[in-house]
Amino acid sequence: MKEYTCIVCPNGCHLTYDEKTDIVTGNKCPRGVEYARSEYHHPVRSVCSTVKTTVKGYPVISVRTKGDIDKNKIFDLMKEINKIVITDYLTIGTVVMKNALNSGVDVITTTDMVKGD
Amino acid sequence: MLNYDCVIVGGGPAGLAAAKTASENKASVLLIERSGKLGGILNQCIHDGFGLTRFKEKLSGPEYAYKEEERLKGTDVVVTLFTFVTSIEKTERGFTITYVSQTGVTHVTCTSLILATGCRERTSRQVAIHGTNPAGVMTAGQAQYYINILGKMPVKKCVILGSGDIGLIMARRITLEGGKVEGVYELKPTPSGLTRNIAQCLTDYDIPLYLSHTITRVYGADRLEAVEIHQVDDHFNVIPDTKRIVKCDSLILSVGLIPENELSKSLDIPMNNRTKGPSVDQEFMCLVDNVFTCGNAMHVNDLADYVSESGEIAGRNAALSKKAKRDLLEVNSDNNFAYIVPNYIDFNKKIDDVIFYFRSRDEFKNKRLKIYQNGEVIFKKVYANLKPPEMEKIIISLKQKGELTFKLEDM
Q1: Cα-flanking dihedrals φ and ψ of residue B6, to 5°?
Q2: B88 with B77: CB under 8 angstroms?
Q3: Chain B interface includes A44 (CB < 8 A)
Q4: What is the CATH number of domain B1-121+256-323?
Q5: CA A79 to CA A21: how far, in whole Å?
Q6: Model pLDDT for residues B262-280, shown as the tens digit of each residue
Q7: CATH class of domain segment(s) B123-255
């Protein structure tokens, strides 16, 4: 038996996962089942951070993974994210790193850079 | 002097939502924002988890703000940035607002006013810590601004006091950027932040959470060098022989948020002792007629989605507001509640589909909420778990006039 706090939504359900029967209890919605199973077999997380820019008024801009990556690769991803330097105005949702660490997940901007800001 | 039906102070999620619904309901709207960008504090909240209810997707703060700003496109809402309201006066016909902007000092008049000024963090001045006054003591929001907006790391090794959500989020953020978080110390025996933030911000990164602990002294002349930590008893009194010194260059405070209501004071708006925001009726109108409030200026919310929702309600009602005598009855509760919003029901207004937000005072298991009116139970709901950090929301259609009393009873 494993116990998890579901992080899918603010309810934060207290989940119990029985690895022998693959049964999840304590969830208020189906996403809890999925989360507990994933947490046991292959934990993943989304990562939010910033990247440097050389654009006036934007020392950094915010980015996030467009999907989840392996939990144990978070710090490797942070190293890659911190190598990026943006040199021009980008709109929100622009891919700044494709297929990060071969995860199939892109890193996208989450800020709209506006000229004259 | 320009006249608007509705002036909104504050361009964060509450003000943005209010501007949208006020405009949809045919009001001419002026939205006043102090900074150079709409979205308020969402712009520095780069973590995701916003918008699950409102947009049915997991967004970061800036993305949520962007979506809200996009919704204003095509409306007639006038936005003024870099604009600071210096005074509001009540006149016979409404309000006169004086503000300073890049074009100088301007006066405008309006019929209804929405205060969407958000909240402020409690600072080190509001929690009694002895010792020196070194650099390196900052609020979680300040650390967030340094890292996420300015791109500067203000911390090498830090201690966090208080387990509010921003503190937890910053514990993770600092760790991701290569800083060390020695621990999070919480005075109370239960965490202040959401359970999922304890899991994904502390547990994931092996950051210890020490409940019933506090920081009693700071050391360091120019820069913080260490903090003194004590365990506390059930009455929050320091237990003397539990002293521990932790070396660190920063102390981050996440010790609570207070609704920002400097402007409300100038209008003598009655405040609520429990929410620390203005007392409001079900339209989120304050006890001063035609002044509305919403979002974190009204009470501190745990989700931006609720902030937007309350903004929509305030905006719509401010646009549709008619001069009518008010018939206010207070909403009462037993002492198991931290607070209930709205604090009053105006029985001269619409009383169906009234939204109530509430927080329990303590952590409770298996309680039945009962709402009494005129000696009868008009609403019942069972809660398996109630926690002060997790706000609850219910919608009730009232059928008749009568004072309401909320009670949490054992099952």
Answers
A1: -145, 125
A2: no
A3: no
A4: 3.50.50.60
A5: 39
A6: 998 889 999 999 999 999 9
A7: alpha beta
For A62-88, how does the pLDDT look when each residue is reduced to its tens digit (9 = 90+)?
999 999 999 999 999 999 999 999 999
For residue B51, what are its two tokens? 């918008």
CA distance A21 to chain B (A): 25
Which chain A residues have a beta carbon less than 8 Å from that of B36? 117
Residue B129 has a pLDDT of: 84
How many angstroms separate the CA atoms of B76 and B29, rounded? Answer: 7
CATH number of B326-411: 2.60.40
ipTM for the whole complex: 0.95
Residue B149: C-alpha distances to residues A92, B46, B50, B64, B197 (Å): 16, 9, 18, 16, 22
Q: Does residue B44 register a pLDDT over 90?
A: yes
Question: Which residue from B176, B196, B204 is facing A78, i.e. has the nearest CB?
Answer: B176
* pTM exceeds cut of 0.80: yes
Collapse the DSSP code of B29 into the 3-class scheme (helix H, G, I; strand E, B; otherwise coil) and give the result: strand
Q: Quote the CA–CA distance of B95 and B114 in Å, as a whole number.
A: 11
What does the block give as tokens for A2? 């494993």
Distance from A96 to chain B by nearest Cα, in Å?
16
Taking the C-alpha atoms of residue B229 and residue B248, their distance in angstroms, rounded to an integer, is: 12
Same CATH topology for B1-121+256-323 and B123-255? Answer: yes
Quick one: DSSP state of residue B129?
-
